[in-house]
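Q: My labmate handed me this sequence with no annotations at all. I'd like to see what the chain might look like in three dimensions before we decide whether it's worth expressing. Could you predict it?
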Amino acid sequence: MLDYDAEAREYDASRGGEPRAAAAAEAVERLLPAETGTVVDVACGTGIVTARLRRPGRAVLGVDRSPAMLRLAEQRLPGAVVRGDATRLPVRDGGVDAVLLVWLLHLLPEAAPALAEARRVLRPGGVLITTVDKDDACFTEPSDLADVTAPLRRRYAPQVTDAAERLARQAADLGLRPAGATAFRGAGQGRSPRAWRQAVERGRIPWCADPGDAAATVRALAALPDQDRPRPDPHYRLLAFRA
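A: Here is what I predict for the chain of 243 residues:
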């Protein structure tokens, strides 16, 4: 997993900045019930999305494990951030209307504990909103990158902790029922083959964790044309589940 304390200062700029944050917040709003009065954003990071969810009559709390991320989030959400873990939220049972798990579950070794904790703090009728299939977001449109990486991504698929079908089953086991879906575009985030090669070489691509797979992928990416031309922007998916 990335060192988010070390990444904090450059995190927003390297992840699409304000345009991606605006698109993410708008997508979340489409899934939040109009009467939502309390929102807990788990793994809020710098608060760039969280701050956009504030409304008159709505309390928003950002939770993150990284002190450096929280220092930045505090600037956007004064008095409304707290250090905490997705499996041990500093929130009472049945205390909130909505829990967000955006760009988090794909990082965890198992999603079930975080889902169970979100279920614990949701009031009856509350909503859990989560991103799904994060690692495939860059490959939803046809491209040579999608073709080159498809076999390895398929092989890695059983290990994907935020796979939509898997999360739906786990949510159902917790008494959470489907409550909507939406998607948004990560504008300007499409990577070039060279950028993908660099990410693989730095160990940042989970389906290339094996050194042999990483080396083969780097070779395949290096053989693609237009090494510096960005391929299609990612399309992120969100699912909502109601308690």
